[in-house]
What does this fold into?
Amino acid sequence: MQGKDRLKLIKQWQEKRKYSLYSRGDKSKQGNLNTRLLLEQDGTYLRINVGDRTWIKAKVIRNVKRLTDKWINFIARLLEVERMGKCFPYSVEIKIRDDEVYAYISFEEEIPQISITKGNGVIGIDVNARPFHLALAEVNADGNLASYQSISLHELLNKTKNQRDYLTWQVAHKVVDIAKEKQKAIVIEKPSTVDKGNKGDGNKILRKRLQQWSYRGILEKIKTLARRNGIEVIEINPAYTSIIGMLKYCPQYNIDKDIAGAYVIGRKGLGFKERLPENYEKLLRNQEYINYAVAKLEEEEERNKQKLNQEKNVYKQKPIKKYIGQIKKDINLLKNLSSKPLTQEHLNRWKEDVRGEVKTSHKQWQVVKVALTFPILEKSSSRDFSPLKSYLVDWDRVVRRLVLVLGAGAMAGSNTACWGLSQPEVAGYK
It folds into this structure.
């Protein structure tokens, strides 16, 4: 690097290395001893100590563009200091950038007491990458679904870091405004690390989207704004909320699986336990259906093995191999269930406490997902769960309509018939 570019880089390095001053606030010294903001008739000034009890004053130029600007709150507190004599500490960092002097001020906010609690219900929030949006479910205090909506996040894509940060704050304000209007607390997932994929995994478009995804930032901003507005924020472990939502509430309310996931998050924040529907328990005990599900999965595994053999692109082979590996795990899960059938109600296969309220094991939900998702919906990533309504509503009728389907999938065993459902039942509840 030579010429003007080199000189520009040297200047930027010197600015970051040398031209900065930090002064920490102290309540006992009226806010800040060395750099203090003064409110005078012709404007706001920053008084800076340059040594030997010598001070210089720099006029502060700070425009306010919106009513929620934190600068308004800061100036209001300075006015209160002059009127009441009640000081508060604030720290000032002075930097020189491109021959311009900037002052960065940080101070502790006064968080109001919580006035909106879960006693009136909650707003459950689920963050999703595909499609890229927030799913919001309004849940009453009795656990019933009151309303739902989605907030698109596609504006965050293909933006700079500062633009994404600004737009994320806008989304957080929308969520908090909804909670204030409904007078309900907010339930969010505990921020966790999101797997953003690896190069060559065959999911280039999704990976690019995830690389720009500020998952933790969205939730943290919602939490910060909610507390500023006196709204209770509840954080829960999101494990299996999506599976429970799509299997239990998607067919029941005819809602999207992301909205159903947000609904489960809201119910969990209210303290409700999700029990496995009785008809799903019957399904786990039906050996003929389990054999049918295993056969359908084995048939899907064979199709993908053939697809893998025909695919010559090494990178495109990776998602196929990953999918085959997941199918094998699902088959083993159902076969293990078949080896230990649920024939007695008092038998507790997952070593749970059978006294008092029965708690549903997450493994049961996983087994039901494997047994229903592909064998009935015929797609591992389906978003239409309406065919499951017949299982929830009238399991006995479904069993009566089980018919022998010749050649419908690989045989689970040499003497085992392969079972399926007649077309009206598969299409949905009639």
